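Subject: Protein entry, chain in single-letter code together with its fold tokens

Category: Structural biology, sequence-to-fold work with a learned token vocabulary.

Notation: Tokens come from a learned vocabulary of local backbone shapes, not from coordinates.

Start of record: The labelled sequence and token lines come straight after this line.
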Amino acid sequence: MSNYSEKPTIIFDMDGTLLDLAYDDFIWNELLPIRYAELHQCSPEQSTQTLFNFYQQHNHTLKWYSSRFWTSQVGVDVLAMQIEQKHKVAKRAGCIALLEYLKQHQYPIWLATNADTAGLAFKLEETGLAAYFDVIISSETVGHAKEFNEFWQALHERHPFNPKHCYFIDDTEKVLKSAQGYGIDALFSIRQPSSHKAPRDSFNYPMLDALTDLIPILQQAEELKKYA
């Protein structure tokens, strides 16, 4: 599918960008330590420390995002645990309003996530977001996490796009830096990825307070293009 368009392609991350990161924080930092302690009959402190060490070892790798990998590592069915708590999955404020605006104004809308395919599938079903996107891709599908240039190369091979004619919104600095290295200049982050944590004071990329803050940015770019 060719996705070149007069309108720039808008590429979104999912967790912490379109969806409230509070769900993922709850799964990995609260619920999994409880389940791990119950299964392995250790103290909550031992469980938390063991999992923290696992997380540090695999952070920002493709394994980090794989429910199958974590199930094999910790002995807890991580995917089943996530689905059990799917009612906690929540869209960030302004998510639908922004996607509706982009759809109405015929922007190509892509979703590029590090969530594995199984996790992606149940979140899309729970939120009903799939219909908004022209392209949906998981890093598991291409074999590289978004933190690495190979992801962007693989994405371009599957779905050609012009990095100079797109916007990318993600809550993770290392991912944004990777996208910048690939040639994407219009990069934005999220000031408050989790509703249960305080907003960021500073970041190395422009931050959106609300997702709908992207709308006037796009409108201004359209006006400037008219007079170029």
User: Anything to note?
Assistant: The chain has two domains: 9-20+90-226, 23-87.
